[in-house]
Every structure is written in structure tokens, then in C-alpha cells.
Amino acid sequence: MIAVIDYGVGNLKSVEKAFQFIGFDAKTTSDKEMILNADSVVLPGVGAFADAMDSLSQSGMIEVIQKVIDSGKPFLGICLGMQLLFDYSEEGGQNNKGLGILKGAIKLIPFGMNLKVPHMAGIAWNLKTNLRCLRGFPRNHMFTLFILIISIPMMRI
């Protein structure tokens, strides 16, 4: 069974239903024992980094996540869930502490623009960075952006 961690943030049921649609037994749960006994665990998330970390802390899920990771079971962070695994995030203009499971940070992409985050509209993007993950993107191209951050791992994964 795949446990989808319910910590009150994000698209939990849609993640559960996606796994079920492709034939997996998945359950959204906040039951710590069910999560610890699952075959694999998913940490989804949509929203603000700091709020999500507060929710994980208040729900007691930080310790559960660490135990799952330490056990070696498959663990997947999706979107904000993946971001939370890093040491910290610059989201909101400050360094918000993450889970510290993945060494590195969630950083603002240096666009040279001052945009509201999340920016949910098309923009003409004049790429001014040499980040490896952005190579191959055309310059001065229209994109629709939903977030303005990138994960920067301290080690190769």
C-alpha cells in the first residue's frame, strides 16, 4: 500500500486517485502507524513552504517522515512535498527551515524581474542565467509560470 501523507496541505486526494487510476493501492492518511507500515510513502503538497512545515510539525509528521526515510522504504515528494525535503527555502524572501533530508536549498530563480509568486500568467522570458536545468530553453519565449523557484541540491541524486 502507498500511504499519501495527510498533513492538511494540498492536493492529497488527487494524488491518491492518480495512483489508484494506474492500479496501485493508495490511501490518504494521517495515521502514523499506517504510514510507517506502508510499502511506500508519498508527501504531496501545494502552497507555501513555511505553512507546510508548520503543518508537518503540528501534526507530528516530521518524526514519521524521518523514520520512513531511515527505513529505506521508497519515498516520493511531489511538488511542495519534494521542496520540503531540502534544508531550506528562500520562498517568501526568507530562509525557511526544511526537513534537511536532501542537502541543498529551494532558491528563487534569478529572472531579474520582480513578479508576484506564484505568477500564473504568460510572460516573455529573457533567460539571464546559465543554470544547467534551463539549458535548451529558447530566449525571449512566452512561458506560463506557476512558481519562480528551483531546487539546488548540494549533491548529485
Q: What would your notes on this structure say?
A:
The longest helix has 11 residues, at 49-59. By secondary structure, this protein is an alpha/beta fold. It has one domain: Rossmann fold (3-Layer(aba) Sandwich). The strands form three sheets. The chain has a four-stranded parallel sheet, sandwiched between helices. A four-stranded mixed sheet has the order 6-5-7-10. A two-stranded antiparallel sheet has the order 8-9. The chain has helices spanning 12-21, 32-37, 49-59, 61-71, 80-84; strands spanning 2-5, 26-29, 40-43, 75-77, 86-89, 96-97, 102-108, 122-125, 141-144, 149-153. Pfam families: GATase. One of its GO terms (molecular function) is imidazoleglycerol-phosphate synthase activity. Pathway: Amino-acid biosynthesis; L-histidine biosynthesis; L-histidine from 5-phospho-alpha-D-ribose 1-diphosphate: step 5/9.
Layout of strands and helices, then pairs:
Elements: E1 2-5, H1 12-21, E2 26-29, H2 32-37, E3 40-43, H3 49-59, H4 61-71, E4 75-77, H5 80-84, E5 86-89, E6 96-97, E7 102-108, E8 122-125, E9 141-144, E10 149-153
Parallel strand pairs: 1-2, 1-3, 3-4, 5-7
Antiparallel strand pairs: 5-6, 7-10, 8-9
